[in-house]
Amino acid sequence: MKLSIVAEGGGMRGAYALGAIDALYSHFGLKSVDYMTGSSASAATLAYYAAGQFYPGYYIWSNELPSPKFLSFRNILKGRPFFDIDYLVDEVFKKRIPLNENKVKASRMRLIVPLTNAETGDAEYFNNRTKFDFFEILRAAMAMPFAYNHTVKIGEKAYLDGALTDPLPINIPQIRESRKIIILTKPRSDSKSGISDEVRQSLLN
Q1: Sign of the torsion angle spanned by Cα atoms 104, 105, 110, 116
Q2: Among residues 175, 178, 144, 139, which one has the least CA distance to residue 161?
Q3: E-strand spans in 147-199?
Q4: Distance CA 59, CA 44 (A)
Q5: Nearest Cα residue to 36 out of 178, 157, 142, 160
Q6: What is the Rg, in whole angstroms, of the alpha carbon atoms belonging to the chain?
Q7: Residue 52, Cβ neighbours under 10 Å: how many?
Q8: pLDDT at 105
């Protein structure tokens, strides 16, 4: 019986996904699933989960993300993005609380990360068995145009935050074929819609 997790991304939804996964992990003993997917910051949370490093990943949210080195208007004055994704990936993920890329790629859990093709505006999907540098996939997964202002090159293509095109990636074939799917998203009472097509196109152009 296949079991999957789908975590919504975009802004602080990644923090909600982290708390929900913590409950599943700590209180219900859910140490692994067959497939999981999450856009934007949720992809990084799931990567630490896939590597068996959930609590180091949890520490990042509670101790590293509030740092002005990552999130500060002063970054703009210094010529850096408001959200310094490069600091998060190159300093935090690689050095301060290192994500074991080998364990991510060797995990029995299949992690699928949506990215937005910066040229076509379409969603494309990468998994943790990819030949590409997984840190670059995470960098691209969080590359929101108005806050990071860079595309990320993977192979011959440039990519942006996957939440622009697929914030709640539930239509991936492996996910839909699962017997049980745990969806981590906002409650039904929250009627706010996602990014409109017009806004999405303005961000991509």
Answers
A1: positive
A2: 144
A3: 152-154, 157-161, 180-184
A4: 13
A5: 178
A6: 16
A7: 15
A8: 97
Lowest mean pLDDT among 133-142, 179-188, 196-205: 196-205
Q: What is the dihedral of CA 192, 12, 152, 91, to 10 degrees?
A: 180
* Interval 161-174: pLDDT, tens: 999 999 999 999 99
CA-closest candidate to residue 142, choices 105, 92, 187, 197:
92
Token pair recorded at residue 188: 């039904």
**Predicted confidence (pLDDT) at residue 198 exceeds the cutoff of 60:** no
H helix runs in the chain, sequence order: 13-26, 41-50, 54-59, 73-77, 85-87, 101-106, 134-141, 145-148, 173-176, 197-204
Under 8 Å CB-to-CB from 29, ≥6 apart: which residues?
none
Express each pLDDT in 92-126 by its tens digit.
999 999 999 999 999 999 999 999 999 999 999 99
Tokens matching residue 151 = 């595309």
